[in-house]
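Sharing a chain and its predicted structure for anyone who wants a worked example. Both blocks are below, sequence first, tokens second.
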Amino acid sequence: MDAPRWLDERENRAWRGYRRMRRLLDLELARELMQDAGLSEPDYDVLSDLSETPDQRLRLSELADRMLWSRSRLSHHLARMQQRGLVSREEHPSDGRGSIVVLTPAGRAAIEGAAPGHVAAVRRHLIDLLTPEEIDALGALTQRVVDRLSGRAGRAV
């Protein structure tokens, strides 16, 4: 077994800073989203993913994959969203075992109402603090990590 490659001071500062920033940023964005729009981050993720599809519907399994959630966890969350009238579920037309998650008019109104404030918060707490060069660097960095973690390293996205 190889000896661990401990982080040096510079690497440790970057790693701990990233972790602290991520926690604080996630916490603040979630707080503002709930306060301003009455939506949780998972609610927003479901609604925005559905709203970005041409027919405003996705197979439950595809939505779970996008959110990095188990189908069971997503199914429980969708049940709560259904009770609030934000989404509905339909049986998959060609696969009786699958279901389709559909954005309702109330869900469409909720995401349209929440998006401007959420984007403003993302700008206020992150984007507007960065230079254009830092935004480019952040985009490249995050894409590299996402590619590695999703097994796509070395392939064009």
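Comments welcome. The CA atoms of residues 42 and 77 lie 8 Å apart.
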